[in-house]
Task: inverse folding
């Protein structure tokens, strides 16, 4: 009897891991396809992979693009046949217990060199969609002081503006 319970437990655990691996494969395909759609300037394929209320946070402090705004901003780039080209060189995916949302982080090879993407995907009508994406430029620790000097003036101006709005 103990052996049957152990075997049943092992099978249940194995099926759960297999299902999670299959979900991670689907999420990988969505993210890779999303990046490929941008590289191919395929506007419809790109935005089809985002939720209707999706958010894209860009590298500039003021880039907090809601889906409709992001579409308007992006359309001219896609129309010219040249959007952006990001290729994942590493990715981690974590699936929530409910199985209908996941979060991820990825290292990207881009025209800005190494960047980090992170975000949230959720299942919409059985398909994984990008609900929230954050793009950041990866800065080696030994270059942070230099970067701070480069951006200090503009950041100080922006911080003053933002504090006035509070």
Result:
């Amino acid at each position: 009897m103990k052996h049957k319970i152990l075997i049943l437990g092992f099978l249940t655990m194995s099926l759960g891991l297999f299902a999670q691996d299959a979900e991670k494969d689907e999420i990988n395909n969505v993210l890779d396809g999303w990046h490929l759609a941008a590289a191919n300037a395929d506007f419809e394929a790109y935005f089809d992979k985002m939720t209707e209320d999706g958010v894209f946070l860009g590298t500039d402090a003021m880039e907090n693009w809601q889906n409709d705004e992001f579409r308007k901003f992006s359309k001219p780039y896609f129309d010219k046949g040249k959007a952006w080209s990001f290729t994942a060189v590493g990715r981690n995916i974590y699936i929530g217990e409910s199985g209908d949302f996941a979060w991820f982080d990825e290292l990207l090879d881009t025209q800005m060199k190494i960047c980090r993407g992170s975000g949230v995907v959720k299942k919409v009508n059985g398909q994984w969609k990008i609900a929230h994406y954050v793009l950041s430029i990866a800065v080696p620790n030994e270059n942070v002081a230099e970067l701070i000097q480069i951006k200090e003036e503009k950041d100080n101006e922006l911080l003053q503006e933002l504090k006035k709005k509070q």
Observations:
- The CA atoms of residues 116 and 157 lie 26 Å apart.
- The mean pLDDT is 92.
- The first strand starts at residue 50 and ends at 57.
- The first helix runs from residue 2 to 39.
